[in-house]
Amino acid sequence: MAAGDIGARSFGGRAAAIINNPSVRGLVFQIAFVAALVWFAWDIADNTARNLQKANIAAGFGFLDRTAGFGIVQKLVYYTEASSYGRALLVGLLNTLLVAGLGIVIATILGFIIGVARLSPNWLIARIATAYIEILRNIPLLLQLFFWYFAVLRAVPGMREKWTFLGIFHINIGGLHVPRPVFADGAGTVGLALIIGVVAAVLVARWGRKRQEATGQAPPAGWIGVALIIGLPLIAYFALGRPISFDVPVFNDQGPILRRGFQAGSGMTVIPEFFGLLLALSLYTAAYIAETVRAGISAVGHGQSEAAHSLGLRNGQTLRYVVIPQAMRVIIPPLTNQYLNLTKNSSLAVAVAYPDLVSVGGTVLNQTGQAVEMVTIWMIFYLGLSLLTSFVMNIWNRRVALVER
Amino acid sequence: MSTMASTAYVRSEMVGPQKAPPSMIGPIGWARKNLFSSPINSVLSIVAALFIVWCLIPVIRFTLIDAVWTGDDRAACAQASGACWAYVKAYLPQFIYGRYPIDQRWRVDIVFLMLAVALVPMLIPRAPFKRLNALFLLTVYPLASFVLLTGGHIGLRGRFLPDDIVGPGPVRFALEFALVSFVIILLVGLGARLLGLRASQSGSAIGIVLGALAVVFMVVGADFGLVPVETANWGGLLVTLVVAVTGMVASLPLGVILALGRRSKMPVVRIASVTFIEVCRGVPLITVLFMASVMLPLFLPEGVTFDKLLRALIGVALFQAAYMAEVIRGGLQSISRGQYEGAMAIGLSYPQRMRLIILPQALRVVIPGIVGSFISLFKDTTLVAIIGLFDLLGQIQASANDAKWASPVTGITGYIFAAMVFWAFCFSMSRYAAFTERRLDRSRRG
User: Fold this and answer.
1) Alpha-carbon distance A6 to A27, whole Å?
2) Of A113, A181, A344, B82, which is the most exposed, with the fewest CB atoms less than 10 Å away?
């Protein structure tokens, strides 16, 4: 397209006209730029190929099928030392998703509470929230992670002792020991009942909202939903003859001192690395989410809450029906960013050896030397996750966005 | 009975304003309004007060009352139930300088001092010589720091002139530099002549760049008589500041270029900028650092090796540049179209438009954002500890395991100390950002 323009204009024969034509200049510059990029990339590729050849490393993803030979302490899917590198990375990936997903839930709840507290008319509460935000935000996450993992979680009892909470949570230096659910035949039906309960609760909530919009009366949709979510699986559980049992962790506190402690293989153990990371990630991100929430609520005009008050709504109702729905529009985009940050920050797991994707990948990298492939896998995973999260959050954002006429 | 005294009372002057009841003003009134305005609020206040006491008492006990302030080794702290400040005191030089040779630490001090002296007037809005100061901070200071910290005297050997003409060494390098410069100037001059442009403008730009490069090479190659200090011996706050300041200084120009590239009309440039920015922002810093530490050596030709610290610096600078670019893009977008069009109308070229009209305005607007991104960079510098550098956190982590001071409270004391240092830096930066934000708001309104 540019070529046609040039032809027409330079018909007069003046070279200056061509040179001063912005599109020609742009074209020349871009060609030069691409040439420089290609040369740069080729140079890098050439050097890399030569260096890899010298180090006797075969490029490509073939190494993923080879036997890993190292153990992983926390695995959500079947994995042994005889499994492949690819399987090991899958385990790491799932661990990343687990800690990030749980972290997001906790950070969101905590962040909303603290963000609202920061705007509380109660001076003390507002001060506590401010102090929390200012302290947590201005200390590096890695330092906080070290603090929780090396200082706090090491202060719990040793392997031969334990602390017990509520009778079922046992904590010692080996982690959190809880009963492990054992699924017998029919457990799937209970799970199905749970899913049905959740779906039904959502439908009830929707019906409740419609009814409120139509008649002004709000049916107790929330309570019905809770009853459905808890009740349906319970009914199924008892009707099917209790197909889920619990394997309680066995603690030996008798006999020789070296025999004491939790019996291996009994119950379920949540490793302290997971705890430390989850704690650090969610507390740190909650401070940011709180600021986001505060900014969002402040962005809702004061007249809105005054109008709601003069309509006779209580403080809580004003917040729930008037302020938060409007604030959500401001909050969601930065909230998405915080979720992504939390997910990316979960890579700090490598510092406390929680087996996430980066940590497991680092081990694979050290064993195989496949640096290029490993970094590529990391980048693709995190980039893909970023894109996916922004995609999902964009859809939600569009739903809550202001619908203008 | 006409003399009956009138009982009617008519006030001849106004009643003075009454004082507000004591329950509405002063500390009591304040407490009623802010703490006990309703039953729920009263309960909340009491719970909050108890919570504060419950949190503060152990903290104060640990850091002050039960703390150990003096001692020579772990015996002082082995039985302590409070912080072991004696350990921090004993290790303080290490936390600041790492394993930098003791008799050479004055060099580090000078670098710190120069930074403080140049930075403080930069941050005070009324202080004069902003432009000169910025020039100093972005050019002279990094160069001087480099020479002071490493010792300078880089062995420049030259690459391509045959050995029998002149042996490898600074002379060969200088000859080669002159030769290459000559060729470049010749090519640019020829090209300009062929295209019928005035050669002076592009010629002077090239001249400035080449001249600056020559000065840089001269300075880093010169022998100032300083003992060389390997970067492996650097540590503590020194490394933290080196990584942070390098990241900040390098990311500003790179960020400007990327931001302009992202808003460019040329599709190739735009796509390249967007790709770089989004890839960097989409991945965790730790993978970028791993990439810099394990992949960069693969990218280089045989025989060229980079220092571990330098690799980390490159990674941090590129990563930070992507974030900086997004901050600056925000500023560019806030400049109204009229400014661009006005600049075009008076016949300024693209570089002139950007340099003289757009960037000065855009960068001013985003100062709070820039400081904000510096804060995250400063916190992120701790990640270099993961790839085996000893920054402040890494140094503390390493020293806590030292058998001489090992005790149950050593580690936590170190973390508290690190937290205080990082907090002081980051909090003052965030206050500064808030201050500029208010100032900008005011100037824009007024």
Assistant:
1) 11
2) A181
